[in-house]
């Protein structure tokens, strides 16, 4: 059972802070734009489009995945700030189930992350991708699910760290590798065996693959998605449930 | 009266350090119970266990009849807490902090606004309700936190040094409000403090040092247990007065700053006889009851001092660091 008002008020708090902190919106939107237009545009001269599509188009779902990854993790990691500044005690002492707290926090990350992903998604005409309305809606729906799973993963991460000094550790050693091994910048199937295994354990891999499924109609060739949309969604949903359960358990654990 | 808090042989160890060492006590429903002790005595640790934020190493604790370890959810429903360190969200307004609390503590949607505004009025912050908490002074934040602890009308309210950092005026106001809680709202108050005047108003006190309860009882009982009243007397001829007193009562007065002083069981019943005996020679006479400070001094061998403001220099560093990164 989930306490509706607890979830509501946790999400509301995040949205209020998000709206107030405009620099955060700008910096999280700047990153995908830099990758799309600077890195992507540069690399597209190197990668020939004969594989099925221009490189900038190929990385577009990956860039959506990046937007989700960074803003979801950033939002969830704010729990470390809440620990540091005491607010987490206010939440943990409240008579609400730990799972409601985790779901509230995950939905907070999901909300801010989906908003930003939709903004980036609307750039599709600029890079020459054609999307039908149905594709756009599916992509937004998938983004929402991916954002939820990555946010809940971020909460599991946050339970391990006590201070914000760990923030850069998390960014450099967990988030960046997750991005590169997700198939965002190159198809996973091009990787060698050990990296391919690492990538198959990466929750973002299935998210990026699901986004490739909804953004592209291409179903074969070297740049096509690695798995079916159904399989991707199954993994995303199952891992979300797992992460929420684990995080709830960790929150109940006390010194 | 029944016990709303029950603690049995509670122990908490942090590695090799025993922060709470086999303590037991009961708190009666509708009373004000005080935990008095120096820094590091284990007060906050005990509160954290009672509030379900920390599991004990051994022993049991019950709040409202519920086991703090096995039924944390039921315990949480019964309590309100004002933590020693600030737990406000400084990027939200005063109103938003309190409304957040009301919702998460299950105050019905229809009542959130009214309760929140009442609470803000109660601590005199209603006119600042839409200001961000980061623009508040330390004392305002403290008052806001106390208001927040009351918003959901808890059965037991934990106050960990509630008046920390308040000016005398606000402290008095807050105390008046706290004192009303048991009668007006049936709230049981469990508080910690370093201030003797505050400890005086508690129905019962437990004095804790190095994790152990070394004495407990009402302030009156505690004072009685350690001793007697001290009489100070000044006469025209101290030497002969001293001889008379010694002769009559067998007491051996000391002389200090021109005054004779000695202890008796009940000063008020000794003084009339004394005035008669020393008729005509007494210049002044007064007596002092033992204070809680004396109790504390006698039991722990040290003075209790209000700690300096919370560790604000470190917090400031943290904030500065955050800004840089
Ligand atoms: N999380 C922790 N890890 C390790 N030691 C701890 C922890 N929390 C408290 N302690 C130790 O336990 C002891 C009791 O601390 P506690 O905070 O309960 O004291 P206190 O009575 O509240 O003191 P104060 O008046 O300074 O608030 C101290 O020695 C403290 O260093
Ligand atoms: Mg303390």
Commentary on this structure:
The complex is a heterodimer of chains A (255) and B (325). In chain A, 73% of the residues lie in helices and 0% in strands. With 255 residues, chain A is mainly alpha-helical. Chain A has one domain. In chain A, helix 4 (60-84) runs antiparallel to helix 6 (98-121) and helix 6 (98-121) packs across helix 11 (229-252). Chain A is globular, with a radius of gyration of 18 Å. Chain B is of the alpha/beta class and 325 residues long. Chain B has a 6-stranded mixed sheet with strand order 6-7-8-3-9-10, with helices on both faces. Chain B has a 4-stranded antiparallel sheet with strand order 2-1-4-5, with helices on one face. Chain B has helices at 43-50, 72-78, 94-104, 109-122, 138-150, 168-185, 196-200, 219-226, 238-249, 267-277, 292-300, 312-324, and strands at residues 3-14, 17-28, 32-36, 58-63, 66-67, 79-82, 156-160, 188-193, 204-209, 212-217, 229-235, 254-256, 259-264, 282-288. Chains A and B meet through helix 1 and helix 5 of A and helix 2 and helix 3 of B. The complex binds adenosine-5'-triphosphate (ATP) and magnesium ion. Adenosine-5'-triphosphate binds next to strand 2 and helix 1 of chain B. Residues 14, 17, 19, 37, 39-45, 84, 307 of chain B line the site of adenosine-5'-triphosphate.
